Amino acid sequence: MARTQKTQDHIDRARAQWARQLPDLDTGPMEVLGRIYRLSRLVTPSIEATFASFNLDRGEFDVVATLLRSGPPHRLTPTELYRSLMIASGSLTHRLGRLEKAGLIKRVPSDNDGRSLAVQLTDEGARRAEAAFRQDMANEAEAIAGFDPDKKAQLAGLLRELNLAVEAHLSGKTTGEPTQD
Question: pTM for the complete prediction?
Fold first, then answer.
């Protein structure tokens, strides 16, 4: 059934354009992954503005949030951090330097290896990470407040299944670490 112009979203319009240009190509994956990507792009500016209001960029927030959600003593090794964040160790080193300079983390002797240092949130880091996360969740809840609660729960379950399927597919093709989030 063809959608009317009023019920078409950006992805429907893009698929129609592609159908005219490349009629033999199945653009069905855009219906799912394209919409997920577009939704992410739509909310990213608001999320980044929230973190900026707490003097954090998104990468810095990811580090302090990962430490906070790890539970007391809010301490992880750099290896645990970069595996959880799925970033290169060099990127993490740069973020840690900025966060340490800002007084949000400190380096402490590792519980597992006295020769290495772990990364631990400071009290200020924990306070700021929690406040930023609370504000971000409030903003995100507001953004989807108009969506039917039953459909929201159904969509969350379907997205979980999709996430697991994509992770399983990709884990067979890459040598990267599986996600731990």
Answer: 0.82
